[in-house]
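--- STAGE predict ---
source: upstream dedup step, 1 unique chain passed
mode: sequence only
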Amino acid sequence: RHLARLSRTRDPVVHFARATEAVMASEAIQVVVRVRPPNNKEKSEGTLPIVTTSTERQEVCLIRGTGHRAQRNIFKFQNVFGSFSTQQDVFDSTMLPILGDVLRGYESTLFAYGQTGTGKTHTIEGRIDIPEEMGIIPRAAEHIFTALQGEHVLESTCTVSYLEIYNEVLHDLLSPADEPGAKLAIVDDSKQGKGVHCAGLLTHEVNTPEDVLRILRAAQDRRKIGETKMNKESSRSHCLFTLTVNLREKTPDGMEIARVGKLHMVDLAGSECAKTSGVGAQDRTRMREAMNINQSLLTLGRVITSLREKQGRIPYRDSKLTRLLQESLGGRCKTCIIATLSPSILCCEESLSTLSYAQSAHGIENKPVASQRMITTPRDRGAGGPNMEVTRLNCGVGADSFVEMECRLQYMEAQVEEAQSALARKHTTEQAAVQRAETVEKELDSTREALQESQVSLSLAKEEKEQVSGELTATRCTLSQREAVLNATRESQQALLHESVGVMRDLEDSLGQGDKMHERLQQLSAEEGTRRAAASEHAAATAALLGKARESIVDHAARQAALRASIAEAAAATRDHGVAKLMELQALAASLGGAITAGAGEVGAAHTAQGEAARGRREASHAAEGQAGVALGELVAAAVAEIGAGLTRLAGAAESAEAAATAWTSEALAAVAAARMQSDLLQAELQEKLSTSAAAAAAG
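--- STAGE serialize ---
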């Protein structure tokens, strides 16, 4: 039966996989947990968070109940991502090791499991338009295409497919929207080496990460999403994204190995409760979606439980989702499960169920198988190869033993393929050993170089140590000197402080003296004002006296003018009287010509006497006028002398007061200026000493 089964599977890749399956060690499913941060709704409503994480201890703590009934449930996993974890952190810890296995020919699966609205789609796909928010699929595509650019890769092709399970119906998200797609069905071609897969699902070849992003955008537009109470953009279907990598690489010894790796990334629809999600009986579409989603997830839970408890029958066929994940759960894939949680107390039961499922899945073991084969040329087979052996057998048998020959031939082909597979494994092992030996030799050489460098560095370090010791001694001396300088600086600062206190006191005394001088100046100013008022009063009295003197002089002048007028009138009257008498005498002379001559002597004498009398009167008048002028002059001279003496005394007193005030003011200003100059000098000296002290302290 074994030979008949081998005759039906001629694919060497399948033979190699079957040959290596028995020797591959079992590997447990990797389970990690990611807790999203509270969303805006939970923050606005003040929802209590009950889920905490510890990335150091790799554990998740869920608190049920409140008060004395509070119960702490602690779950440990291989890795835990808190609310501060980034997309890059999740990718580096979960997907990056899986991608290395895919490039080595393994089939790997990563799927996100959890309640709706906990970030499954964000983890798997993310926001493909923002580099920092990209999910696992875009980052995995970029990493794979970067790895395929290596020099050891001779040829590579990548294909993708995107399957959706909506209400237990299969849909191809990459089929043309205007063309009816082929009918999809789940088939089991384990005999052909394909395993459980979806027949009729289209595959698209991609050459760059941008092609993958373009396909993701097209698939996102066709994916079934809907709004619920828990999530505005809730995924209403399960989606399976598959990336297949076919590559042919060259080994260092010239051999070629062909590998086929597959990466399945599954975004499961979130489990939800009708009460919390807000789906009512009137919304039949949402109710049907919820029923199908929960049914498939319950089947997934039963599969996980059966595998954990190692039951005889595993219910893979109860759901299309579990049927497609058959190789990922207990099969030949390397599997990683990301359980997503919400920290809200409203999701307590769903979070506890998710953690229980994740912990149950942690004990499931898979048996990963690499799909690879060694490529040989005809000259490598040699003259004694299987073809020649077949020829000999065909030439040396008859028709009766044809069935036996065919069985032997099939057995020999299987043996050749087994030997080829064993040779490939041995070559891979030897290549790994050679690489390890080369690595060890390189490490040894680098270690020797590092040892030499370390010895040189040690000698340099010793020299530096001696130099540093000398510098340390010099530094200590310098430090002691600086401490002495610092102490002296402190003492000088204390002395300067005391001096500054004395200077401040002197300055305060100087300011007090200045205030006293200012008060004295104010007093002198008041006295000067008093003196000026007295001088003003004396000037007013003098002006009044001068006015009276002027009035007396004017009166005396008026009297003198009247006297002069009377004298002039008397003189005029005398002259007129003499003239009249003369005229009378002339008349008498004319009438008495004769008597004139006779009485000439008597007339002459009379005339002479009259002239003398007139002269006496004129002299008396002139004498009286002279006496009056002398008296008036004496009176004016006396008044002017008295006025001059008063003005002289007033000017002398004013000059004395002004001279005294000027002297006091000059003395006060000189004292203030001297005090200010002394204060400025003291301040400058104090500032200079403080600056010197600060500079010395800074230098120390």
